[in-house]
Amino acid sequence: MGLWVFLLLGAIAFIAFILYTNNKKGAERLAAAEAEARQLYDRLGGQTMNLTAPGDNRAAGQALSDAGERYTAAGAALESAETVSGFRAAAQSSIEGLYYVRAAREAMDMDPGPAVPELKGTEGVGRLKEPVSAEVEGQTVSGSPQPTEENTHYHPGGRVEGRPVPAGWYSTPWWQPAAAGVAGGIASVMVFNALLAPAYAGGMVDGASPEAVAGGADSDADAGADDGGGGMDDMGDFGGADGLDIGGF
After folding, report:
1. Cβ atoms of residues 94 and 37 within 8 Å
2. Which one of 17, 56, 219, 229 has the fewest beta carbons within 10 angstroms of its own beta carbon?
3. What is the three-class DSSP state of 184?
4. Single pTM value for the model
5. What average pLDDT does the chain have?
């Protein structure tokens, strides 16, 4: 009887130790994730508050406005975060904002500043290395490696509705139809087919992975299929881009 009691107490002690260790590691991970998120948030806040774009530099002004929106989003995410994934999501919002700050600085011919952590979802999508242009729904949509009079909306690269989008400056934020300033917006699949698929296929994107190039080819193939079918409305999965997909945790 005494041996069984001893073994039972030993098992209980072992389980308690495992639970304590796991809880401690979990608390440490949570604290580290929160510290990182708050550090990035403070860094973004300092840079957005200490940088002003000249009134005639629309590209820089737009990039700073986008950075400010990400700062607000990161702050809201921090307020509600209670898990590691929540704090990581807040960190990603701040990182995205820092990319916009770098873009604004480059648009003002300033040093881009210190390196920024890699934004989740940008792996292999590359960046535009030469201007591209296409007609989409009667509107000219264009992109370029550097801001121009026409291309004043920066995209840090990533995926919209699962399709690769190279980093660069675009004439309209077509990945956010509601903000594009056109009736109904422009469906992202139309931009992929008309603008980005040819850019990937034509080697106009630096640093693109084979998977991204293949994604562009698939987009072009989808366009061909639509020409013989029911049109863009059949592609509901790609018809409503609502912003940059930076991945989840």
Report:
1. yes
2. 56
3. coil
4. 0.76
5. 82
